[in-house]
Amino acid sequence: MSKLLIAVFTILSRLPLAVLQAIGSALGWIVYLSSPGYAARMRQNLAQSGLANDPHSQKLLRQAIRATGMGAMELVIAWGRPSAAIARLVKNCNHWDIVEEALAQNKGIIFVTPHLGNYDIAGRYLSQRLMQRPQPVELMAMYRPPKLAWLEPLMNAGRVRDGGNTAPATAAGVRMVMKTLKARQTTIILPDQVPGQGDGVWAPFFGRPAYTMTLVPRLAQMDNVEVILFFGRRLGWGRGFEVVLQRLPEPFSGDKAEDGRRLNEAVESLIRQAPAQYLWSYNRYKTPAGVTPPMEASSS
């Protein structure tokens, strides 16, 4: 079954980017109009961000609806096309010198990207460019298994190529990532995923408490490890992507609550650069099972 799905994805991936984006745009509207709960959460998250103030709120909402669908359809490229073909879709990469400087200092790198733009295509680009260096560097992507189980083999098959590896978001996966960083290799982590019980702290995200992972700040405390923010900005219909890299605005302090705030502020700084391309439909403010809600946690 998985081989058949991979073959279907490979065939679909041959469609031009503009065609896939057009299909995705329509798909985004279909999901939005057919799912009241999904639509309400997208509107609420956008309103909470303060980035969609009138008179631009409806325009940004429409852009976000289309972009969410585009991101879904672009996965057939990220998981189905050869790495070299994916890399050609990246028309520009800002501040690669940050990466080379960290590697020259013999550091492991934590690449941090939120659900913004197309992080899978940007990740494939990073992986290929790292492996093409005179001294190749491997990239490990940490992931949470998708709710649709049939997607997992497709996702892993697409990511485990050309020196790429994956690690599940489990205790075993964390150990794999730590081993990778100690070997002065690199990893990708999505910082805006809601962690499980005991793996997060409540920290403001666009002014509202969100349960925020402690993993990135904890890994950043390891010796000779650097955090680099990045995302893959969509340039427009069929025009490709731009990979944006930047340093962490301020280093982590070692205090969990403070570092949760700093991590979310760093994520916000990326989202503000391309607000229509963030996954506003994600339930970022949910309270995981067994976790004390923020109001109760602050009063205890």
- The fraction of residues assigned to DSSP E strands is 15-25%
Portion of residues within helices:
40-55%
- Write the element-wise H/E pattern from the N-terminal end onward: HHHHHEHEHEHEHEEEHEEHH
For the record, the CATH class is Alpha Beta
Low-confidence runs of at least 5 consecutive residues: none
Annotate the secondary structure layout:
Elements: H1 2-12, H2 17-34, H3 36-49, H4 57-80, H5 83-88, E1 90-94, H6 96-104, E2 108-112, H7 119-131, E3 139-143, H8 151-159, E4 164-168, H9 171-182, E5 186-189, E6 200-205, E7 208-213, H10 215-220, E8 225-234, E9 241-247, H11 256-271, H12 294-299
Parallel strand pairs: 1-9, 2-5, 2-8, 3-4, 3-5
Antiparallel strand pairs: 6-7, 8-9
Helix pairs in contact: 1-4, 2-4
